[in-house]
Amino acid sequence: MKRFFRRAAAPVLGVLLFGGIAAKSLAEPSFSSEQVDLMAAACANCHGTDGRLVGSVPALAGRPAEVLEARLLAFKHEEQSDTTIMDRIAKGFTDEELAALAAHFAAIDPDGDDDSQAEQEPQE
Ligand code: HEC
C-alpha cells in the first residue's frame, strides 16, 4: 500500500518550481512579488504606503517606471544634485533591485484603495 504514495509528489513539485522560475526570468530579473513588497516597505515611511503620499516627499505611485528608475539610478550613482537622502538610500540597492522597485511603484494606481494592491502587481 505504501508504494502507492511513493514519491508521487516530488516530480510534480519540481516542475512547478522550475516552471515558476523560468517564467519569472522572462520579465523582471527574478524577484518574487514578496521580495519586491519587502523592499518597497522600506520606502513607505517617507513616501507613504504604496508610494501614494503627496507632500514634501515626491509621490511615486503611478509614475512611469522609466522615470522612477532613472531617478533612482541617478541618486545611486551621484548624478543627482538636488538630493537630501535618496542618494544614501539608493546605494543600499542593486541596479536590478531599483528597477524592480520602479516597476512596483509604477504599477500602483495613485487613486486606488489601499486594499487593491493585489490586482496591481506587475505580470505574474
Ligand atoms: C527617509 C525618507 C525616505 C525614504 C525611506 C525613501 N525616500 Fe525616496 N525620496 C525622499 C526624499 C526627501 C526625496 C526627494 C529627493 C531628496 O531629497 O533626496 C525622495 C525622492 C525619491 C524619488 C524621486 C522622485 C522624483 O519625483 O524625482 C524616487 C524615485 C524615490 N525617492 C524612490 C524611493 C524608493 C524606491 C525608496 C525605497 C527603497 C525610497 N524612495 C525611500 C525620501 C525618502
From TrEMBL:
Organism: Billgrantia desiderata
PANTHER family associated with the record: CBB3-TYPE CYTOCHROME C OXIDASE SUBUNIT FIXP (PTHR33751), CYTOCHROME C4 (PTHR33751:SF9)
Lineage: Bacteria, Pseudomonadati, Pseudomonadota, Gammaproteobacteria, Oceanospirillales
Signal peptide range in chain numbering: 1-27
SUPFAM superfamilies noted in UniProt: Cytochrome c
Keyword Transport found: yes
Domain Cytochrome c: 22-109
Protein name, entry field: C-type cytochrome
Record keywords: Electron transport, Heme, Iron, Metal-binding, Signal, Transport
InterPro entries in the cross-refs: Cyt_c-like_dom, Cyt_c-like_dom_sf, Cytochrome_c_Oxidase_Subunit
